Every structure is written in structure tokens, then in C-alpha cells.
Amino acid sequence: MPCEVKPRILVLYGSQKGQAQSIAEGIADEAEEKGLIAEICCVSEGDKFNLEKERAPVVIVVSTTGDGDPPDNALKFVKRIKKKTLSSDHYAHLCYALLALGDTNYANFCNCGKTIDGRLQELGAKHFYATGYADDGVGLELVLDPWLEGLWEAIRRALSKMSAPQPKRDVTDTRVSSEETFESLATDVSLHLLSLEPEPASTECLGKQEEIGRAKTESTTPAVKASETGSTVPDLRPVSVTDTTQTSPNRSCVIADHKSVLGTPSGVPAAVAEASLTLSFPPLSESALNVPNLPPPYLDVVLQEATTREETGVPVMKEGFQEVPVSRSAKLTSDDSVKTALLVELDISAHPMDYQPGDSLDVLCPNRVSEVGELLLRLGLMDRKSHCIQLSLQKDTKKKAAQIPSYIPENSTLQYLLTWCLEIRSVLKKAFIRSLVECTEESGEKRRLQELCSKQGSADYNLYVRDPRLGILDLLRAFPSCQPPLSLLIEHLPKLQPRPYSAASSRMRHPGQLHFVFNIIEFPACIERPGGRRGLCTGWLSDLVDPILLHPGKVQSSSTSSSVPKVHVSLRQNCSFRLPSDLSKPLIMIGPGTGVAPFIGFLQQREKEREDNPEVVFGETWLFFGCRHRDRDFLFREELQGFVGNGTLTHLKVCFSRDPPEGTETRTGPRYVQHDLLLHAKDITNLLLRENGYLYVCGDAKNMAKDVNDALMEMIAAELQLDKLEAMKALARLREEKRYLQDIWN
């Protein structure tokens, strides 16, 4: 009898901020628990895998960044598979499944995943499972959970068909056999298409997802053996149990209902109590739960005795980042404005940055001192905050491709780790909550955490964790018996990311300087977080520049060199969001609020170009700007009016959403920038479609960018007498020609 060989799969990922990587690692870990050999690689690690010779099922998880761009670590892979020299059967041997992560608040939803998927299909590769499009705009879990649930049955079928003896065919018929095999595999899992398409999920679809999940849990598909090859295709179904203490902690399971654990709070009538982060009601509180696998721990953490070295309070200089002084800061809004906008001017004369208008800069910011202190107290480690951390991998860890986080410098102190390395405000993922279950003593709290990470509790997770953006501190406040070890936080909290801000200046007008502007983000108090708070970076920057802040109508006080604040910044170039090289092309800029920032740089540069080239005929320039009130938050008002006065800006169209038009007491004119666009539809469509102009949009992705896009479609359809589909195609062509460009954020 031949030796049994474990079946193998290959898991690839492309990730910008770690989300896709985390999902891929979870797939690899679960594959190992299910009796498979799982190799996991980043798509950038081309020396570790070879798709040209790969015969095992391949699972690809990839995110999208920027304006539909691949993650940085996927750029080379995308470029490689897009080579025009590759034949149409280059990957005819390859079977794969792909999960694309994206956000429908942005125009090019899941564009990187769609690009890879489409190109692999063009090169002959075949799906063994339907592609999933997970939308972070509404919650990745809505697609991610059912996609992962169905993945294992699809892998089992793929392995079974790949290991089964194939009928002999003529050599010339090999390609047909491959197509038939994997097209049938894709058909086998077609039920999941309901939840995998990027349209918003309906109640009916969610109900069908639950039915599919129950059907799979109750199925009794046996393991399939392939005697000729000696390999065994394991049973990849989830295990259903009622007592989690009798199962391996790394197996997914069904937890029996705990009716007696959760009820209404003592002394509170049932009719008055409401479900919350810590409290649930039937049917959830009485349901059996499908909870995810327990992520395998992989780090050992040792805190060494405090040294004489003092904590510097500043980050270790990261590659590409430079410490630069703030030369000036000004408040651009009045005291009674709803939002507070600040302008920050950096002195980069000692650290020249070759930036262009349209580029942005990344700003390193720390976690708030008060939050770091509270977390240290909650972990019982305040007296060891100056101890150095030593990290090592557990020798017996079951985590695939476990690595010590590269973003944690050696010999970091505990306080430095929590201040500069970990994103302690990051929204809790279900895998993290699942791990926290094991650190919780009180039975009611444990049950509630199980509910929040379960399939049945997805609605509660979205309502009480994802939507209010709860982090680890919020959860620890709500669940007092939860006592996680430090190692768990390091394993699950992502890297503290720098925050990007658009450059609001031009080197041609302000040599040696770089300006940026931001609103101080305010998060109001909510039930899950009783105390309101400021945005992490905007709140920190506001505190940092407060001693030198220039208020409207006041003279700036002189400051000594010792009081000059400094920030760590890195240039982030945007090679597409740039002024056209042809100065005669018209420009249409749409940027309400702080979205006007890059256009200040555009206009400063265009003003200098006009001064240097008086004989050149420049194209028209239009700016559509919007704010609430003329006298409270009209950003860069004097500078914009100056551009109009000297001819740099041909048309300035401003709408005030909360002010009635001049000379009236009620609103009758345009309220938002898209309304102003519609008033000038003929001019704008003529500039775009007949004079080959360029259109730029900067600002809020969730509402403004979508509304502007809808207005553009309406304008093009009306002016050119096209139907909606043809208008959409016209806009798509503008995008392809890089004449409809966006710099938007959520």
C-alpha cells in the first residue's frame, strides 16, 4: 500500500495595509488544521513559487489601493502577468480561486483583483471556485464569511478531480479536458454567487447565505482517497460540537445556546433593556453559534529589566521619513465653524523633497499618551513600561509562515511599542475577538464575545463593533474579565500607519516649503464609547502646532527655535494626479472643503508658469468649491480671489450649503458642487469632450465623489443625447485616458 501524502495548496496574497495578508494567513492556518499542506507567499516573492509549473489549487487574496491600483507588493506580479508576449494558454494548467478586497466608496472597486482575475482567464487559467468581491464599505464579512465557508468544499472537490484518474484523450485534446474539468468545478459552487457579487446584499440574499451555511454544516461528505497516487483528500467540513472543551482549539465549531447566561440586567424590565455591545436577546442569545477557528498563537514575549536608557518619545527614523520643522500654522476657519481647518507649513529647505502639486505626504503620528497609559494599566504593565521587549517565535506554533513583526525595532521599550508601533485604535477583527474569548473568565462576557465573532452574530458585530469603530481599549472597558496577554495584542494589532495629506503648495511658488491642510476630525460620543475623541493624527497635529497657531485676524507671535514643533514626513508621489504637460489644455477642478488643497498647488504652479511664459496661450481653468458658510469656512478665500483677479483662475464657482444665495432669505440656488456642475453642463462637457480637457476631483469618496460622478453622467447624457450606458462608457474613456482623475478618501 503506497504511503499517503497530504494534498497541497498554494496561498498567495497582495496587501497594502495587512488586511489581505491576514486573511491569507488565516486560510493557510485553517488548511493545515484540515489536513492539507499550505504554502503561503506574497505575490512579490516570485522566487518562492512558480505559477508556470503549479499543479495544486491556488488561492489568491488581493486588495486594491489608491485609485484602483495594486498594492505596492503586487505591482511586479501584475506587470509580469500583463506581458503581451504571454500566450493564451500560458496558464492553461492552473486552477485558482480569488478573493478581491475593495471599497465601493471608491470608483474602481476591487480593481486589482479584477485585473488579476481577468488576465489569468485570458491566459487560460480556470476557476475552481467563484471569485469573491468583499466590500469594506459595508463590511468585508458579508462576503468574506460565506466565501471562506464554501472554499473548503471547493478545494476538496478540486483535489478529488485532480487526483482521480482521467480518461485517455488524444494529445491535441488536452486543453479541452482542462477547461471541462474546472468549468464544472466553478459550476459546483455557483450557489455562492449570490453573496459574492459586489451589489449590496439584500435580506433575501443573507437568508440564502445562512441556508447554504446550514446545509454545508449538516452534510456528510466522506473523505475521498485516491489509491493510485497515494494521496488522501481530507474531509474539510467544519466540526459541530456542543462542548468546546472537547475539541481542538484550532477547529471551527458550533457552540450550544446558553439561555441562562445572558438575560436582562438585574432590576431592569425586559421591555426597557436594549441590546448593546455587552447584551444580546433572543434569537441570538439562544442560538447555537458557528465561531471561527482560534488563530494559533505564535509569539513569545519577554520583558527585560529596565535599562538606564531614557525613552526618547520620538519614532526610530523609518526609511524614507525625515524630521522637518513646522515654520507656520494658521487656523483657516472661524471659531463658530462646525469644522476646524488648520494650515501647516513645513520648512523642508534642509531636506529637499522633489514634490509636485498633486502629490501627498505621509505623516507619522503616535498613539495618544492617555490611551497608551490606560492600556498599560489595563494590562497590568504600567510599572514595566520602560522594560525592553524581546520577541521570539514559539517553537511549536502551528501558524504558517509565522514572522516577528518587522516594524517593531529591536530592544524597543513597552511604552515605545504601544506609542509608535501598534495601531491600538484599529477596529477589532473577528479573529481578534475569537482569541479574546479564551482570555475572558466571566461566562456571560465570554458568551457575548463568542456571539460577536460568530456567523450568527454578524449583524451585532457590524452594529456594535464595526460601525462605531471600536478598538481594543473600548472592548476591554466593556468586558472587565477579559485579560489578554501582551503577546496577543502584538499578534493581532496592525502596524501604526502614517496618515496621508495632499500637498497644498507648489515648489515653484514656495521653494523650500511644503504646505498641507486638514480638518480636525471629531468622533462624537456613542453608547459603545461614552467619551468622544479626536482623530488620531489630526488631534495630535492640532496639539503639536497649538503654541504657534495663528488665529484669523491676529498677529503671529514670534517663537524661539526650542519651541518649534517638528514632524516626521515622507513624500508619497502620485504620478497620475498631475497637471497636464500641455499648458493649453483646460482644467476643471472639483474640491469642496479641504479637498481644495491640491488645487491650491495646481493654481500656484499655473500662476508661476504664466509669469514665466507670457507668450503662451493657457487653457481655461475652472474650480468648483463648496463649504457651509461664506464667512466661516471659505478656505483660502483671499488666495483664490487673487487667482481670479490675475487671470490664473478663469472661473471660480462657490456654493454655500447652509447660506441662502445673496439677496434672498431662502435657498433657491445650488447647494453642493454637483449642483453647480449641472448649471454649467454645456461648458463643462464641451471642455472635456471637444477640447480634451482634464477633470480632477478631490475630497470625500463616500458622498461627494459619487454625486459628482452621477452629475457628470447626467450632463454627458443630456448634452450628447446618450442613454445612461453610453454616458458611462464616455466617462470610462476619460478615466482610461487619464483625463478624469480622483484623489479621494473615506
Automatic annotation (TrEMBL):
One of its GO terms (cellular component) is cytosol. Residues 211-248 are annotated as: Disordered. Keywords: Amino-acid biosynthesis, Coiled coil, FAD, Flavoprotein, FMN, Methionine biosynthesis, NADP, Oxidoreductase, S-adenosyl-L-methionine. Its EC number is 1.16.1.8. PROSITE patterns: FAD_FR, FLAVODOXIN_LIKE. It comes from Esox lucius (Northern pike). Residues 708-737 form a coiled coil. It holds the Pfam family Flavodoxin_1. GO terms for biological process: homocysteine metabolic process; methionine biosynthetic process. Residues 319-580 form the FAD-binding FR-type domain. CDD domains: methionine_synthase_red (cd06203). The keyword Oxidoreductase applies. GO terms for molecular function: [methionine synthase] reductase (NADPH) activity; flavin adenine dinucleotide binding; FMN binding. Residues 218-232 have a biased composition (Polar residues). The keyword S-adenosyl-L-methionine applies. This is Methionine synthase reductase. Its cofactor is FAD; FMN.
